[in-house]
Design a protein that fits this description.
Layout (H helix, E strand, L loop, with lengths): L1 E6 L11 H4 L4 H14 L3 E6 L3 H10 L6 E5 L8 H10 L3 E5 L21 E4 L4 H27 L2
Parallel strand pairs: 1-2, 1-3, 3-4, 4-5
The structure holds 1,3,4-trihydroxy-5-OXO-cyclohexanecarboxylic acid.
Length: 157
């Protein structure tokens, strides 16, 4: 089982940028926590960060045949990117959208996510813990899919 974690623009600056909103934790520390959860649950995990929309689209496309689930924080592209939404929709891989801050508590332009409607779910406002919740949620989604597939295989025997 493999999960790909995709981080959008400026998330490489966590720990430096607007600590009052995003907290002191660096991206690599968040990833270390996710990796330890993945190891404990025997899940393969890959991390990718880009400040470029097209690179994020490429990475989502590369998940076909490679990833069972995607956890994505599209950052500012959440609110603007039809290209990322179309990519998530195209690959047909269960995807969870994550935000550190509560986007619904912030400026009005952050209240709308173009990506969430094509995701299995959205976790927002829990700080770095949002990513842990996404790992737990994705593990649950993937084990349900596995169970359904096993039942289908059993029924077709
Ligand atoms: C963010 C929220 C976005 O509105 C913002 O542009 C970000 C980070 C979050 O994780 O809270 O860069 O995605």
């Amino acid at each position: 089982m493999k999960i790909v974690v995709i981080q959008g623009p400026n998330l490489n600056m966590l720990g430096v940028r607007e600590q009052n909103i995003y907290g002191p934790m660096k991206l690599e520390d968040i990833h270390a926590q996710m990796k330890s959860f993945a190891d404990q649950n025997k899940i393969e995990i890959e991390f990718f960060q880009s400040n470029l929309e097209g690179e994020i689209v490429d990475k989502i496309q590369e998940c076909i045949g490679d990833a069972d689930g995607i956890i994505i924080n599209p950052a500012a592209y959440t609110h603007t990117s039809i290209a990322i939404r179309d990519a998530v929709s195209a690959v047909q891989i269960p995807t969870l959208e994550v935000h550190l801050s509560n986007i619904y508590q912030r400026e009005e332009f952050r209240h709308k996510s173009l990506i969430a409607p094509v995701c299995a779910g959205q976790i927002t406002g829990m700080g770095p813990f949002s990513y842990h919740l996404a790992m737990v949620g994705m593990t649950q989604i993937l084990s349900e899919i596995k169970m359904i597939k096993a039942k289908q295989a059993q029924a077709s025997k």
